[in-house]
Amino acid sequence: MVGPVVVEYYAASEGGGTLITADEWLRHPTSVGRAWPGSTVRVLDAQGEQVPVGETGQVYLQMGDATFEYHHDAEKTRASRVGKMFTVGDLGYLDDEGYLHLCDRRSDMIISGGVNIYPAEIESELACHPKVEDVAVFGIPHEEWGEEIKAVVQPVADAEPGPELTEELLAFLSGRLARFKLPRSVDYVAELPRDPNGKLYKRLLRDPYWVGRERAI
């Protein structure tokens, strides 16, 4: 028997980060830990103000007095900064003991009818269905709501894609997610586009729906 031996960390090439032991994770499931020595972690709103405990915002990091600039990209450098702190676009919240919980990437967030919806939550629930091998969720244009939720599913080998599977998946989600988080449509592919390290190229799935649109949220 192995026991709780895994240590997890969250960081960026730019610096800063958090650390959590297995014992800590059992007390704070879904967390990626607290700031390690010399690092600072804050969750800020769109105005750069710290949000209350438990409220989702953009995650900002700082490693001591270290600083950096993106190569030949002053605008990206400026946009990523609040004071000496920087963000790589992750969304999350701090619990009452200072543990960071990640929710999603800001660039992936869906805004539907003025409500912020985090695709990662929907993807996690769909991935629990035994007929789902892989899944991606993102926003596509909707004339009234701005965006609606689209799911793209890679079924397991012996599952038949089609309306019956869609009905089954939506019924599965209905007891696990609020109604406004349910996908409005489901597409099926033989394989989702991932790189050798498993990173999903979500833009390859999302971009075709936004062709000819003035904005792609």
UniProtKB/TrEMBL annotation:
Residues 121-199 form the AMP-binding enzyme C-terminal domain. It comes from the Bacteria. Transmembrane segments: none annotated. Gene3D superfamilies: 3.30.300.30, N-terminal domain of ligase-like. It comes from Phytohabitans rumicis. One of its GO terms (molecular function) is acid-thiol ligase activity. Pfam families: AMP-binding_C. The lineage of its organism: Bacteria, Bacillati, Actinomycetota, Actinomycetes, Micromonosporales. This is AMP-binding enzyme C-terminal domain-containing protein.
